Amino acid sequence: MTVADFGWDTNLEKSFAGHRAHGLVPARVVRAERGHCDVVAETGPVRAAASPPSTAAESLTPCTGDWVALRPSTRIDAATIVEIVPRRTAVVRASAAGTSRGQVLAANVDTVVVVVSLADPIKPGRIERILALAWESGGTPVVVLTKADRCADVPQALDEVSGVAPGVQVLVTSATRGDGMDIVVGALAGTVVLLGPSGVGKSTLGNCLLGENRLATGAARSSDGKGRHTTAWRELLPLPTGGVLLDTPGLRGVGVLRVDEGLDQTFSEIVELAGDCRFTDCAHTVEPGCAVLTAVDSGEIPQRRLDSYRRLLRENAYVASRSDARLRAERERHNKKEIARMRRAIKQRSGNRHR
């Protein structure tokens, strides 16, 4: 396997000309570890040293899927990653440590597959969170519903998930029986990353796409039905139909990080209706003339959907403000205005009822 099998093309080659002038060669990270990376270069697989980043920024640390400039090994020195080629796309979540830095889950992805198990109760909020990351990445989201053979009402489940994934293709599969896999293969392109919690069937789905059992799989725990972590690291593997697959460990937590565009896409029907609100800064809480609240009252939009949107907006704003003093001050001023506005609206409604 060489870089051509992992997506290297003429556009990347043109952008790499400056690196070649300094004796560097292109490579793609197929697995990243602390201090070292497994990469594929023009001559094949290479074990390369990864120099610690000069800053604390997570984005400067090599991640699975990255294209890098590699200094080839010599009789004295091992191959070394010198620089990360600017990422076209990246799936980034808020750090599990609670810091304002993001954690890059996958780099240079084209298709982001949100994997949802039909054997478990559907959790719309989790799907919306992952979709926000997927849209923000710059890749194309696709939702794949697995374990259809263990679902009593597949059409109802499909309708429920489609309702929280506007503009996203939602596909139903049973990887163990092979149902729907031909449609899934046709919907995927380029570098494909699988995202979802443990136990939803990511590795089983990946093995079907690979055409062989390359990824470890395991049954859910009988005690609580939750999945076990069978994927211990992120790894890039070429697909027999073209493109490459990036399997990821199960996501225990999905924190959003600066996903403004991702939220707009995930809740596109709310954003579209918001354009008809009386006030341009409408928060869709108690404001008169709010088109979104009118849609909720009529049943056009579920209250849960609006609650989820507002919750993710607050979380996104909070994460952004932690690293920006100006945004933090604006958030505090906005909160005070919101409280005052709600008090006025409540007082006004109360006065109308007593007339």
From TrEMBL:
CDD domains: YjeQ_EngC (cd01854). The keyword Cytoplasm applies. Zn(2+) binds at C277, C282, H284, C290. GO terms for biological process: ribosomal small subunit biogenesis. Residues 99-254 form the CP-type G domain. GTP binds at T146, K147, A148, D149, G196, P197, S198, G199, V200, G201, K202, S203, T204. Binds 1 zinc ion per subunit. GO terms for molecular function: GTP binding; GTPase activity; metal ion binding; rRNA binding. It is found in: Cytoplasm. GO terms for cellular component: cytoplasm. Its EC number is 3.6.1.-. It is an enzyme of class 3 (hydrolase). InterPro entries: G_CP_dom, P-loop_NTPase, Ribosome_biogen_GTPase_RsgA, RsgA_GTPase_dom. Its cofactor is Zn(2+). Belongs to the TRAFAC class YlqF/YawG GTPase family. RsgA subfamily. PANTHER family: SMALL RIBOSOMAL SUBUNIT BIOGENESIS GTPASE RSGA (PTHR32120:SF10). Monomer. Associates with 30S ribosomal subunit, binds 16S rRNA. One of several proteins that assist in the late maturation steps of the functional core of the 30S ribosomal subunit. Helps release RbfA from mature subunits. May play a role in the assembly of ribosomal proteins into the subunit. Circularly permuted GTPase that catalyzes slow GTP hydrolysis, GTPase activity is stimulated by the 30S ribosomal subunit. This is Small ribosomal subunit biogenesis GTPase RsgA. It comes from Gordonia aquimaris. The lineage of its organism: Bacteria, Bacillati, Actinomycetota, Actinomycetes, Mycobacteriales.
